[in-house]
Amino acid sequence: MPVISDPVQFNENELYVDLRAALGLPLYLKCEGFNFAGSIKLKAATEMVDAAERDGLLRPGSVLVESSSGNLGVALSVLAASRGYRFLCVTDARCNQPTIRLMEALGSQVHVIQEPDVRGGFLGARMAYVAALCASDDRYVWLNQYTNQGNWKAHYRTTAPAIARRFPDLDVLFVGAGTTGTLMGCARWFWQWRRRVRIVAVDSVGSVSFGQAPGRRLIPGLGTSVPPALLDESYVDELIRVDETDAVLACRRLAARGFLFGGSTGTVVSGAGQWLADHGRAGLVSVAIAPDLGERYLDTVYREGWPADVTESEPAMARSA
Q1: CATH number for 203
Q2: In the 8-state DSSP scheme, what is residue 8?
Q3: Which residues lie below 8 Å from residue 293, measured CB to CB, with a gap of 6+?
Q4: pTM for the whole thing?
């Protein structure tokens, strides 16, 4: 085992689960949650903070601020604590309470947006709050994961090459779409590779990322209510859209076999299952990226009766954000 002095120095990048035994799927699941932030977002956070330090944007007295549905907020909380920065995460009412408590335990401040923007949903409201905050005080430094090139470059440098080393005969890669940093980094890398890999994006029903109409979404992470600035659809071969009830079912099926993954992972696995049911063939080598683990979803995805008991009591505006 390694000996480390910085939490960023540990990030397991070589662990895969063969889902043939657990779910009967010819699919390898790349597990990205085994680090001190608990998700794939530690890669993007590190890339963006390192670039901000190199460019002189982060200085003594700077306060990091970012809009996040949860996982990037935790990753930045880890980095801020280890490097001596203050950090304010702007999230919304869908963020899991364990995630909020984790950020606060790491010394971060958390501001929760309670009402969605009429046009931009919760994400639009979060971004507007951050923009106003930065305009009012130049100590705040907004990395802006939605436009920051470091978001996709992190996965171009690390995630995609790691998959290619382990699976040199890869045929299809399934990647969830949120900010689309992971999707774009992997897609760009594989488009330049020596052999063709089919890139399948997995999005949530209700997300506007690929031009669909907005709708209710309760699982944080994948999907968005504002079109992602980083997305270049020319790198994407296919799109699979997954209803949240199917994502929850996939999570619970995995948990029944001892694998506790997050809601984003359930969405990607469900989408990959749909695609493989229609296109699977003997010898096909397929990989899906699992962004996070499941402990933070115990009060939501893994709670009996969720999300039915939430949707029955939610205001209509919140449900459509």
Answers
A1: 3.40.50.1100
A2: G
A3: 33, 34, 38, 39, 260, 261, 262
A4: 0.92
